[in-house]
UniProtKB/TrEMBL annotation:
CDD domains according to UniProt: PDDEXK_lambda_exonuclease-like (cd22343)
Top-rank taxon: Eukaryota
Residue intervals of the YqaJ viral recombinase domain: 55-164
Entry protein name: YqaJ viral recombinase domain-containing protein
GO biological process, one term: DNA repair
PANTHER family for this protein: EXONUCLEASE, PHAGE-TYPE/RECB, C-TERMINAL DOMAIN-CONTAINING PROTEIN, YQAJ VIRAL RECOMBINASE DOMAIN-CONTAINING PROTEIN
InterPro entries documented for this protein: NF-kappa-B_Signaling_Reg, PDDEXK-like_dom_sf, Restrct_endonuc-II-like, YqaJ_viral_recombinase
Length: 203
């Protein structure tokens, strides 16, 4: 085997390309789930980060949260970091992730109260037709709706006098996932959160 710089300085390349295909087929086959498997995994992985089932089942799967990075990767951009994040997710928490998780429960409670809709906890959902795809929304609403909470860490650093979403968008501009277009507030179509939400329609 020889070194492959595209996959990083420590990556190896199979001299026989058929070996790669064999390994890929082996991994894909191992990821296959039935409908019963999917439902069982979803329930047993509730709690997400810190849940052993959740951490285990995410490995080797392309999850909604990483989908944007894959789609937007340029052809000549080395992909070893991205591949590692899919094959061996670390589960490490950034300050922004910790902030989001701490606020998530509060936001869901406010949503339940203001919308008069109960939100059930969700685990990891695996696509039974493409078992390498998975998603873990923040909550389930009835049988056909989900909720995804985004508590923007960057917005938490703004002055307390900032009171409207329009002010937040104006102050943060390129540092935020939202934009105002045609007098409507929406996700930026080139933001990873947009791709994350898109995957929820398929899984």
């Amino acid at each position: 085997m020889s070194n492959n710089t595209e996959y990083g300085p420590k990556a190896d390349q199979f001299e026989d390309p058929s070996m790669i295909q064999q390994e890929v087929k082996k991994i894909i086959k191992g990821l296959h789930v039935t409908e019963n498997d999917r439902d069982r995994i979803q329930v047993s992985s509730i709690g997400q980060f810190g849940n052993e089932v959740y951490e285990s089942e995410r490995k080797h799967r392309l999850t909604a949260s990483t989908f944007g990075s894959v789609v937007k990767r340029r052809k000549h951009t080395p992909c070893h970091v991205l591949v590692r994040s899919v094959l061996k997710p670390t589960g490490c928490m950034t300050d922004a992730m910790e902030y989001g998780i701490l606020r998530e429960k509060v936001v869901k409670g406010i949503f339940e109260k203001t919308q008069n809709l109960p939100v059930a906890d969700s685990g990891l959902w695996i696509d039974i037709h493409n078992s390498y795809l998975a998603a873990s929304p923040d909550g389930l609403i009835g049988d056909d709706a989900i909720i995804e909470v985004k508590c923007l860490y960057s917005a938490s650093k703004l002055p307390v006098t900032t009171s409207t979403i329009d002010e937040v968008i104006d102050l943060l501009r390129n540092k935020i996932c939202l934009e105002k277009r045609d007098n409507k507030i929406q996700l930026k179509r080139n933001h990873n959160y947009y791709y994350q939400a898109s995957i929820y329609h398929f899984v």
